[in-house]
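Before the break, one more example. Copy the sequence into your notebook; we will annotate it together after we see the structure.
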Amino acid sequence: MSPNLRIAFRFLTAKKRAMLMSLSCTVLGVGLFIVTQATTSGFEEFFVRTLLGTDGAMRIEDRKQSTLQSMEAAGGTGAHILQREGVKYIEGVEEPQLIKDAVRNFANVRGVSAVLRGNVQVTSPFKTEDAQIFGIKLDEHRLVSELERKITTPGGLGKFLESTSAVLMGRVLADRLQLSVNDSISVSARGETRRYHVAGIYESGSRDIDKTRIYLDLGEARSLLRRPTGATFVQISLHEPNRARQDAAHMEDVLGHSVRPWQEREKEWLSVFRALRVSSAITVTVFTLIASLAMFNTLAMIVLEKTKDIAILRSMGYERRDITQIFLWQAAIVLAIGALLGGLFGATVTWGVSMVPLPINTLFKTQTFIVSWSVWHYVQAIATAVVMVMVASLVPARRAARLEPGDIVRGTAQ
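Here is what the structure looks like once it is written out:
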């Protein structure tokens, strides 16, 4: 142990109560920072996983309309013309098979599925509800969603594949219509009503999805909605979902269609979660600020009480940088212990919070607090404490270094 560090320990033990207060605030600041970031990030990650498990990482939706002549030529086809941000689009995907073949050439693509969507009314013996039909090819859709894993009733996928008159229904919609597996329903669209049976019930984790979506065989959906060709959108899953923005921009240039990555599709909710993380971080940083002020006050008192000791050290040949190091070592010791105990405190509380029952069935569905275990939460918490406490400790440390032995003896030291 170096002499400067040994002296710092001696000075620390002289102000045990004050140092314990600084240490407690540091532990609380680091620990609560970790807990709040773990909970807010946990809910955000669960929300993202739910989205990727139902709507995929990207969607190819509308074809770009580049010229006025081509718009007029398309006018007689009944296609809807949209205009967004100065670019004109035709709704839907006219050639989904060509799009799927082209998309599979991109290295990051894991799966591709064409989806035909339409508004319908669903009637059970008890009630009628508005819903949306999603026509899919199950073998393709398995690769772009977690639908298979979300089905909560036994044998649902097998029954769905056995018959084109079978549907998969969300739990919320099934409960509202008082339906269970094998029950019959009537589905009305475009003036036509057909009967289907419930092959399985799924829970996606999102109430809005479970309340409105009914999955049906793509061929049967085309017949019901009177859409013999085309698709509403092409859903894509990626090996690395975080690269969705870059891949979407590349695909738009190549395919001539609008491609929406999940970050753009859900940017409002992602902004909300980001604001919550920042807000909670600012709030709990108050404890770290208190720790830095306590450290400043403690070191300032030590400077006042240890002026004679500082004079002796200077007269023995200690330079100003040595005195500065002694006081900074004191802050570093408190920080090291506080960071270690704060990390353990944060991990323990995070684990405890993850066990707390919290039934939620609104934006998403969960029964407990959702937490995220990330080393970056610990790095951010400790870095915040280091910056604030060390900056606060620098002022009394430099003040101690400026003391001159002669001034201390004469009683004129400032």
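The CA atoms of residues 94 and 230 lie 4 Å apart. The chain has two domains: 3-51+269-410, 56-265. Try to locate both features in your own notes.
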